[in-house]
């Protein structure tokens, strides 16, 4: 890391996409969004904290559902605009009750 | 899938984030962007095809570098706004020569 810290490239809304991956199974669980403060809180607390675009507020994953994400590592990509979390996921990551949000497979012809 | 096909929720720029994961090791390799046509081409050809926001053009991964991504599966998340690809990655996914773009670990204090 440079003495200046990492070069984070937030989008026009001040957000970065954050991919959460199960640290044990390596399953990709979900993608949510972080602003600088959500990322700072995630690093400081070890609890995955996102910015809810729909509710306009910080969202400690599992705070209401109990489906928490204990953070094992936080990585930044080469161009500084995407975060990868490895987490210990309690219960389902998805609000539908599925373990992962990515339960719908697309096939050729599904998209015009 | 409904008879109407999947409900894709593109962002204001007509794009979805697409996470590429190694199908064998489950390593998360990169995140890039797809519009509807890039997604259609990816499904039709089995070669990961993104929309380059910097160059403003379609980008068949590996077309120039040889570091192709043969698509094993394409999944959509629960709210229709993120794609997950499982790929067979030839060589390095990252333009830096790293296998994955996520080679920088962040720690508490790195982000003010």
Automatic annotation (TrEMBL), chains A, B:
Pathway: Amino-acid biosynthesis; L-histidine biosynthesis; L-histidine from 5-phospho-alpha-D-ribose 1-diphosphate: step 3/9; Amino-acid biosynthesis; L-histidine biosynthesis; L-histidine from 5-phospho-alpha-D-ribose 1-diphosphate: step 2/9. Its cofactor is Zn(2+); Mg(2+). Its main location: cytoplasm. Binds 1 zinc ion per subunit. Binds 1 Mg(2+) ion per subunit. Residues 30-103 form the Phosphoribosyl-AMP cyclohydrolase domain. Catalyzes the hydrolysis of the adenine ring of phosphoribosyl-AMP. NCBIfam families: PRK00051.1. This is Phosphoribosyl-AMP cyclohydrolase. It comes from Tessaracoccus antarcticus.
